What we know:
homodimer, 217 residues, mainly alpha, Arc Repressor Mutant, subunit A
Amino acid sequence: MAGRTRRDEQVSATREALLIAAERLFAEHGVHAVANRQISEAAGQGNNAAVSYHFGTKIDLVRALARRHAEGIEAGRVRMLADIGDSADLRDWVACAVRPVTRHVEALGASSWYGRFIAQVTADPALRAVTSEEFAAASPSMQKLQDGLNRCLPDLPAEVHAERSVMTRHLITQMVAERERALADNAPTSRASWRETANGLIDAVVALWQAPVTRED
Amino acid sequence: MAGRTRRDEQVSATREALLIAAERLFAEHGVHAVANRQISEAAGQGNNAAVSYHFGTKIDLVRALARRHAEGIEAGRVRMLADIGDSADLRDWVACAVRPVTRHVEALGASSWYGRFIAQVTADPALRAVTSEEFAAASPSMQKLQDGLNRCLPDLPAEVHAERSVMTRHLITQMVAERERALADNAPTSRASWRETANGLIDAVVALWQAPVTRED
């Protein structure tokens, strides 16, 4: 039994090393530009087939990475939503959309490649469906958030609500990727911290939800 | 001389066929998932090396595609800005950011792959610099637009202005890609036309620029 456990730990450590190496290479060179062989090498695996042995295809590896992050972000969102009271206003709900993501990335520190990885995956015709599924499965809290937004904006037409949800998701994804990229490149950032970046995003997203709806006859 | 001209026309038609085939395949399968050989085949070129003969590397091909669109969008923006008067308000300036893009894509009709193509390129570590250069070179009008936004929002801190410019760019890119994808997939769209999509974007972007700036001490 003890032997079995050590073996499990070894497998687990190998998988972890492969995930970390993959995400870094994906962020720096592009998901499709990186071969599974390069990931195995970067993870210190002598066996070039380590990725396919542990994960299957590259799509399976992308799915495993997306799932990990989706679960981390969801856990943070559940904690924030548990603290939200009946008097919550639009800004409180928008904060529950933004801060779980910026806090997750901040906690990754120098190992933060998630922003650049997920921005690529979101735009990729083959990968976007895979990761949408992972995020939907890992995010039951999103319904509570949508309900909260709805209560704050009862007159917003359903299709505009849907449109602004999509805008919110893209703004968060892209601005997180922008800041992560700037930090990695030692380039100037518009904000001094992830917390300030979240403030800027929340300011913009709250205003976006409150915008009057132009209708043409 | 006449022979030379026919030859030029032939070359020009081949390049055009390659660009169209490339963009469609990039939009549907992903820029990196498509081999130059597949592009040559889809363009009806017997010679598998047609892409490298006419464009060089895939990066050169991506650059040529980005340049064409950037020039088309710029031409539309120059026309809009020529009509803008001294009494222009924030919404007029934001319209000059949004409508040249939605009109460009609308004019492409069923051959619209630009939105999905440019969303991928924007997220790609190797390609984003290439296309940023093309867009910067083709967009001298952007400075006039930024100056107009500045005049409407004189108290906005420079770094927040820069941040909201980036947000505006991402929102336009991503929402154009969303609608183009939905149309290609025969999926429901939140708006009935590109003009309505532009209205929704302008509503959101105007509000985003007007949002109060939260500062923490």
